[in-house]
Amino acid sequence: MDRREIVNLPNFLTVLRIGLTPLFLLLLFADAWYWKSMAFVVFAIASLTDFYDGKLAREGNQVTSLGRFLDPLADKFLVTSALIAFVFDRVVNLWLVVPIITRDVLITGMRLYGLSRGRQMATSRLAKWKTAVQLFAVVLLLFIIVLQELMARFFDEHLFFLDAEKIHILANGLMAAVLLLTVLSGVHYIFRANFSVKGSDVQR
Questions:
Q1: 3-state DSSP call for residue 98?
Q2: What distance in Å separates the CA atoms of residue 85 and residue 29, rounded to the nearest whole number?
Q3: Got the DSSP string for 20-82?
Q4: How many other CB atoms are there within 10 angstroms of residue 6's CB atom?
Q5: If phi over 0 gives left and psi between -120 and 50 gives alpha, with beta otherwise, what is residue 63?
Q6: Which CATH architecture has domain 3-195?
Q7: pLDDT grade for 91, boundaries at 50, 70 and 90
Q8: pLDDT (tens digit, 9 = 90+) per residue, 9-30?
Q9: How far apart are CA 59 and CA 82, in angstroms?
């Protein structure tokens, strides 16, 4: 493939999303409250790149094999990092996160296996919804966590309508919804992998 076909704006946004992930983690685990606030901003920007890289690639006829491979990989890297961070901060229960991460690791392995056999793995609509819900859930939780810290620092923390227990319940409820979509898209993937003809699309 020509280098000019690989080096384009959509692929740059995908690589940027990968690069922003470790920065997000560093900011999230920093001691100062303002760095945690920046972690929310960085994750929100990274999430926007997920929307625009595909949109720009399709509209500009710049879809590449590299982009189709890196895009879902970047999504999984970003979301998995956030979910693990939530577990460490005891915001989300481990048992909800483990199946999500396990499924994504397995599908990534299947994606690599498919590429080794010359089969390009496309992304289903259900898988796209799953990723969108994951990103929305993480952004919402980060926003609530940052807002809670800001209220505690500059105002009366009791004015905030969500305490730690309610945030924990909300976070696990959102992760339960994500887990449901993850299982459904995984079952859909297995069904298509088993019953589709050679060369058909395989879902993320």
A1: helix
A2: 8
A3: HHHHHHHHHT-SSHHHHHHHHHHHHHHHHHHHHHHHHHHHTT---HHHHHHHHHHHHHHHHHH
A4: 13
A5: beta
A6: Up-down Bundle (1.20)
A7: very high
A8: 899 999 999 999 999 999 999 8
A9: 30
